[in-house]
Amino acid sequence: MPIVKELPLVPAERALKVIGGRWKVFVLYFLFEGPKRLSELRRLISGVSQKVLVQQLREMEEHGIVHREVFAEVPPRVVYTATKLGLSLRPIVSSLCDWGRRHAHEL
After folding, report:
1. Counting beta carbons within 10 angstroms of the beta carbon of residue 61, is it exposed (0 to 12), middle (13 to 18) or buried (19 or more)?
2. Do 79 and 37 form a contact (C-beta atoms < 8 A)?
3. d(Cα 69, Cα 90) in Å, to the nearest integer?
4. How many angstroms separate the CA atoms of 97 and 10, rounded?
5. Can you tell me the distance from the alpha carbon of 17 to that of 79, in angstroms, rounded to the nearest whole number?
6. Nearest 5°: CA angle at 78, between 74 and 83?
């Protein structure tokens, strides 16, 4: 069963499920800048293991917010990009970043 079928019915909860997870906002933030290889994302996101990053990327790909492109080269090259749907999350992620900056001292 596709992961999309498991999403909650409440719209806000559905959105949080799609971008929730320790590393998904980081991934989106860096993919908003442009396509990235897995190794680039690992370098940019300190503290994430390759296994967890790949898992988060797969979930995001299943939700249609990240596109994975494999190039037929030796060794194979894989590039991740934010889809149109993923890019539509930019204002939300930006707002979350702004809120976090504004209220950092209170948290």
Report:
1. middle
2. yes
3. 21
4. 23
5. 24
6. 155
Q: At what angle do helices 50-62 and 24-31 cross, to 10 degrees?
A: 70
- What is the spatial distance between Cα 92 and Cα 69, in angstroms, rounded to a whole number? 25
Say how far apart CA 105 and CA 103 lie, in whole Å: 6
Contacts for 49-57 with beta carbons within 8 Å, 24 or more apart?
Answer: 52/22, 52/23, 53/23, 53/27, 56/21, 56/22, 56/23, 56/24, 56/27, 57/27
Three-state DSSP state, 59:
helix
Structure-block tokens of residue 100: 């976090």
pLDDT tens, 67-100? 999 998 888 899 999 999 999 999 999 999 899 9
As a whole number of angstroms, the distance between CA 107 and CA 105 comes to 6
- When pLDDT is cut at 50, 70 and 90, the band that residue 1 belongs to is very low
